[in-house]
Predict the 3D structure of the following.
Amino acid sequence: MEIDWKNLGFGYIKTDYRYVSNFKDGRWDDGELTTDDKVVLNESAGVLQYAQTCFEGMKAYRTVDGKVVCFRPDLNAKRMIDTCKRLEMPTFPEDRFIEAVKAVVKKNIDYVPPYGSGATLYIRPYMFGSNPVMGVKPADEYQFRIFTSPVGPYFKGGIKPITLRVPDFDRAAPLGTGHVKAGLNYAMSLHAIVDAHKQGYNENMYLDSATRTKVEETGGANIIFVTKDNKVITPKSSTILPSITRRSLMYVAKHYLGLEAEEREIRIDEIGNFKECALCGTAAVLSPVGKVVDHGKETLFPSGMEKPGEITQKLYDTLTGIQMGKIEAPEGWICEIA
Ligand code: PLP
Ligand code: COI
């Protein structure tokens, strides 16, 4: 295995082992680790016809003292349970989820990138309806799997500021599935993202679909802003995914950096008042946003297009410092694997 850790992008690289558990007759089997990366399904499997699938995203980090850890996996397990309930899928128990994550990472330990390389081992738990369905109804059988892949930065150029546009597409309906990690949310975002790229933007900044006046999130990350008086704010909405990174950053802002941090509704017409903006998520970590374009109206944040703003940089350094074992973590945030 020859991997150029420093030049990895965010793509799939096959690792040696994955975890599989099957749900049948109302119960999960014991689960196992396998080297087989193929999934074989009936042509009418629920996932293929009615997109009954959901996923999670997390990372394993190599710490400064050579350990391998992951970050708040209990929250991923809980969020997947919420997602499964919304999609009429069976839930995978939290303790088994965490054990399975640890087992897969241990078996792929050589793929956990070295400390300081800028790369991490992405962990992808997912579940889908596996038996044939014809009428629109939930499947009776499911597969829960976890694979891993070493990854670099989600956005090319790493910490260089990106540009968002406000699209003419919505991501989530008021009583829809925006708050859970359903595969369907991502399928319907593909057209908007391809179109954004064609027009020269990195990502879409979605608005709330009910009024199209409030900032929500992008297709794969939450958003934070920094006000001119150094308050960290993030949109409050029932239709965005409750990002674990965002929840952690709000805590870091308050308890590590001594800043005010607030979740509140944020109007698109007030973003010109803010001095910094960034996307946050497991894949995105904390990616600075330099500019937002809303139908010809450009907002260039004072932090500019060359480097992250000062608060964004401090948040980034503190969060990644906690994840890599350089800064003491709050109780329960770090789960040691090896
Ligand atoms: N929002 C969306 C739509 C996402 O897909 C993700 C990625 O998981 C996030 C936000 C960030 O969430 P987290 O920080 O839990 O990875
Ligand atoms: C993550 O941050 O883990 C995600 O799932 C975002 C994206 C790759 C869909």
